[in-house]
């Protein structure tokens, strides 16, 4: 089996007529429908529901600068299997220029915000130090009613976890401040926490 790249000469430039095909298979367990929304900078392919064991596909040509990028969003966060057929990579017409197609998958393109307020009594200073497996957000001192916030995207596996250590005069506590399995559907787009003398209290921003 072989493939032919068809070139069309326009002036002194050759344009690739060869199309790339991307196929996304629904191979989820338990016979779930898979809802996806695929886009590029210039094209919105719309929302599609893929029944179990079915496939959604589309074709396109890589742009002249080799920066073609498609992303897709899944309706449900879960471990999943997917096959991308015909992932095409090829060199361009010179050694100096290379063209490639990049396909990215993300559970969500929207960022989640976590905000922590100091609600301790009597103007007590609160020190907050938050981390994830990959990121250390550093130590922050919050005066009464001050807040600390950050934004992030939930990873593709839905396992994003941030934990924080809170210390103040006479007390300390370590708490999982964001656990995707617990919080993804509870508090989009902002998870608000208030640290009080009796514990860490959750709120959400609609």
From TrEMBL:
Give the UniProt subcellular location, in the record's own words.
Secreted
A Gene Ontology biological process in which this protein takes part is: rejection of self pollen
- State a single Pfam family of this protein: Self-incomp_S1
> Which UniProt keywords are given for this protein, alphabetically ordered?
Secreted, Self-incompatibility, Signal
Q: Does the keyword Magnesium apply?
A: no
Q: Which residues cross the membrane?
A: none
Instruction: Give the source's domain of life in one word.
Output: Eukaryota
A GO-annotated cellular component: extracellular region
- Entries under InterPro entries matching the protein: Self-incomp_S1
Its chief place of residence is secreted
UniProt lists the family membership as follows: Belongs to the plant self-incompatibility (S1) protein family.
Q: What is this protein called?
A: S-protein homolog
Which source organism does the UniProt entry give? Cannabis sativa (Hemp)
Provide the taxonomic classification. Answer: Eukaryota, Viridiplantae, Streptophyta, Embryophyta, Tracheophyta
